[in-house]
Amino acid sequence: MEQRFPFQPSPLPYNYIALMPYCDADTLYYHHNDYYADAVHTLNNLVVRHRLTQMDLEQLIQEDIQLPTAQLDRLKSAAGAIYNHQLYFQGIACKAGPPPFNRLTSDLIATYGSMPAFQQLFVEAAESIIGSGWVWLIAEGNKGLHIATTANNDVVDLASVTPVMVLDMWEHAYIPVDHFDKAAYVNDWFSLINWDVVEERYLSALTRVN
């Protein structure tokens, strides 16, 4: 996901009504056009202010940048919000349906016992987040699949793992539709996963040497 200044919001791969009834058009519009787009605007301003326009998005996330703490936190949060949201939006399909049997789901069953067992552990991970954050399915090269969580807009360690799926657990993503029912939100999201996209990410991760 090499992206460079000036950063641009990625368009949604579906329209705003495509995810109904799991997500209403107003919620999706606000999520994409306001919150995510604002992170892009913020990051562009910060990289200009701190003369970091030569760095790509992953460098801004991963590298140790010498800035005052408050400014560094704003920079990392904006960069993380962009990276995470793009994975999240691209990992959703407008056609709901059960997961196919492919390499990813086969390995998930081998790791967790069954797809329902994996889904339940994902729900529990989401419910464990205090405040805002993200739930990830990550692949560590050929060393297996793991569920992970990060707080706020933090990103998993991209130097050692490859994100396969990520779920936004900020309140703006689920409260308008599911109120405070995190489990309902996670289960709805499982019905919308773009299994072709996440399979491609996983197959790419298997070729990675850590």
Q: In words, what does this structure look like?
A:
The protein is mostly helical and 210 residues long. 50% of the residues lie in helices and 10% in strands. It contains 8 helices and 3 strands, in the order αααααβββααα. Strands 2-1-3 form a 3-stranded antiparallel sheet. β1 and β2 (145-151) form a beta hairpin. α1 (25-49) runs antiparallel to α3 (69-90). The longest helix has 25 residues, at 25-49. The model has no long low-confidence stretch (mean pLDDT 94).
Task: List descriptors.
globular, 210 residues, mainly alpha, 8 helices
Question: What's a quick, concise take on this entry?
Answer:
By secondary structure, this protein is mainly alpha-helical.
Largest sheet: 3 strands, antiparallel
**SSE order:** HHHHHEEEHHH
Molecular shape: globular
What's the total helix number? 8
Mean pLDDT: 94
Taking all Cα atoms into account, the compactness measure Rg is 17 Å
- Proportion of beta-strand residues: 5-15%
Residues in helices, as a percent range: 40-55%
> Whole-Å distance between the termini?
18 Å
The count of β-strands is: 3
Which segments are poorly predicted (pLDDT under 50) over 5 or more consecutive residues?
none
**What strand order characterises the main sheet?**
2-1-3
Helix- and strand-based class? mainly alpha
